[in-house]
Amino acid sequence: MASQKPSLRLTVLISGSGSTLQNLIDRTRAAELPATIVGVVASRVGIFGIERAKQAHLPVTVIERKPTATFSERIFAAVRATEPDFVILAGWLHLLEIPTDFENRVLNIHPSLLPAFGGPGMYGRHVHEAVLASGATVSGCTVHFADNTYDTGPIVLQRQVPVLKSDTPDTLAARVQAAECEAYPEAIRKIAGFRSRIG
Ligand code: GAR
């Protein structure tokens, strides 16, 4: 008897070039992820991630930050309209107030081995610069459930990469991003598997 594969509905939140979104688009299309991207929410106009979403024929909503007092509310109203199982933060750069109906349903990927090199101001290139300045010999990425603080929340998985003596922020970023391309799909598969077991 054929078993029914669980397919998670994912809404992806982007603030930048959308390379994380592109990886998820490619993995879902290659059937490497039991998931469907049902919507994309962008925090700025003019970012390349919006072009990637459009090229993949995904519905995109842009929600500008201002007025900031209602930002999270407006984001989750747009998210709710897409009826996702999970929200995927993909190069997302803003702190969100997660409403109770989305608690434990928002995932983030961060380009370091949290809790190291996380927190306010620690994103993208800043993380890799700080890792190199610290003399660390190992870095990596972390997929975790987001809560209402920067880069905290239960960790789903981490992947390590070496830091080489010859590394620049760019070469380290490229190695970490390659690890992210495996880690995010792996974390989503893990969650999909867990959900199918608990029904
Ligand atoms: C990734 O390295 C991701 O870990 C980082 O942004 C990059 C992807 O951006 N996210 C953060 O630093 C969040 N704290 P992109 O998907 O826009 O290309």
The name of the CATH architecture of the domain at 8-110 and 142-157 and 181-198 is: 3-Layer(aba) Sandwich
- What about the largest sheet? 7 strands, mixed
CATH domain class of the domain at 8-110 and 142-157 and 181-198: Alpha Beta
Q: From the alpha-carbon coordinates, what is the Rg to the nearest angstrom? A: 17 Å
Shape: globular
Can you write the helix and strand succession as a string?
EHEHEHEEHEEH
Structural class call reads: alpha/beta
- Find the CATH topology of the domain at 8-110 and 142-157 and 181-198: Rossmann fold
Any ligands, ions or cofactors bound here, and which?
A: glycinamide ribonucleotide
Strand order of the largest sheet: 3-2-1-4-5-6-7
| CATH 4th-level superfamily of the domain at 8-110 and 142-157 and 181-198 | Formyl transferase, N-terminal domain
User: What low-confidence regions span 5 or more consecutive residues with pLDDT below 50?
Assistant: none
Number of helical segments?
Answer: 5
- In whole angstroms, the N-to-C terminal distance is 18 Å
Helix content bin: 25-40%
Question: How confident overall, as mean pLDDT?
Answer: 95
How large a portion of the residues is in β-strands, by DSSP E? 15-25%
Task: Please give the number of β-strands.
Answer: 7
